[in-house]
Amino acid sequence: MAAVSISAMQEPRRALPYVAPALALLAAVILVPAVYVLWLSFQQSTFGRAATFVGFANYAKILADPYFWRALGNTVVVVLVVVHVEVVLGLAMAMLFAAGLPFRKLLIAAVLAPYAVSEVGAVVMWRTLFDPDTGFMTRVLTGLGLLPLEWSVVPSHGLALVALLSIWLHLPFTFIILYAARLAIPKELYEAAEIDGATPWQSFRRITLPLLVPAILVAMLFRYIFAYRLFSEVWLLTQGGPARSTEVVAVYLYLEAFRYNDFGAASATGWLMVVTSLMLAAFYLRRLYREMFARAE
Amino acid sequence: MPNDRAHSLSGLLRLLGKAVAVALVLAWSLGPIALIVTAAFTPERDIFATGVGWRPTFENFVALWQRWGDFFSGLANSFIVTAGATVLAVLASTLAGFGYSRWRSRFLSGSVFAMIALRLLPPIVTTLPLFPIVNALGLNDTHAVLIILYAAFFVSLGTMVMRTFIDQIPRELDEAAMMDGASQAQIFRRVVLPLSAQGMVAVAIFVIVYAWNEFLFAFIFTTKNAKTAPLVLSEMVGSLEGVEWGVLFAATTVQLLPILVFVVLCQRHLIEGLTAGATKG
Hints:
Chain A has 297 residues and is mainly alpha-helical. Chain A has helices at residues 2-9, 16-40, 57-63, 66-98, 104-112, 119-129, 136-143, 155-183, 187-195, 200-227, 232-237, 249-259, 263-296, and strands at residues 43-44, 52-53. Chain A has a domain at 73-244: MetI-like fold (Orthogonal Bundle).
């Protein structure tokens, strides 16, 4: 009797009421809009006017737009710099913490602090630090005989500041992933290496680095995908200026839609972002897909 | 003997190197925050002056209170939106986590995969179609629209974290309750819910930090009534020529401190959630 009711309760359709709210939320806010964007990208439409089908005209338009290519180029450079600097710094910090530090918990709390800071807050902090007239870092740089960052005038300087503050905001995430992975490496491996006379550098190269590869890949993948969305930092710092020179793809999309009222071009940009995001994630998604269906068997 | 001295010298050097590294890490992580918080307690005219002693004051906070009422209603909005999004996301994630933990089917596997894939899409893309829809529904500039958006962008991470936690609750407990005649809903409420509190805390922390600080959606979907604190802050930066820096720093400090204290207090859960979230999807 009880056995029957247990097997009846294991019928998969009984899971539906539980998973339905989460799926409905995702469908309404992400899935349906994403599909609708695909449709919009083939339409000529501005806000408040009926759409007409134009085929690939929107794609042709943005692909012929030098501002789009500049935004894409800026995005690629900033993402590559941000993610790789983060991984190197995060790795170095993970090694430092793993080597044993006093007040470890307190120090980790300090390292996590930027995680709590909003993008707006971070922009306030970093533009104050690098203010051309009064900024602390400006004084340090000129004191060292270096040129200060003229981030509101020189495009590459603006992007450098964007990269710097993105790294600052997201380093806690990268650090935690790498540090947790480093702690999971068994102590015995290092003890054995030491008995065999390995130098610290050798045990880093031969033990730590190879065993951290999966964690490094996961951290990089997530950071690629999330860094690619970069909007607020740029918008709040330079608004893409001067003369549209520091735009990134998300800012380009926003301006097409909400300043130039070209929803078609913005949707085409959006759909290109969707496709490229999924391509970036393809490796990860494929592994995940196998895992999921292995679980179903 | 000389060998020993060389040993202690290299040990000393190593210690020194560590100390310098820790100092650099601290300066990098806390420097920008300390700068703004200190400046918030500095009289406006002293902030950028060199060679003046620090005379702590609350005058910037008083000025903020008197002239930027908008900022405080922004804080109230942030609070409402954060609370709402957290409840919605934790509730939906816990239910779904239970569903995915206790049942198996191709549909369920497929849908959990879709969940994770959807989470990877850039949020700005969904604003394009949502903007006219939200307007048509009269939801523009309401708390509800932000609550739904924020919950939706965290529900898949939340579901993965909850599934991991609920997987650890032995199924024997479910079966024992079933023998006693409990329905599935009762098992969820009486058995699973109390035992998955830790996971719910981990999910809540993510949503709270995200919703409290979020800029993009607030920027696009709110204009006046539901404006959150980060948005008001950005307007203070924007109106910058002739800005009152002291007031801006005071506002930045007020927006930051509660969430900073929260993150430090929840450090352990946050680290658990971050590692579980990254490795499990």
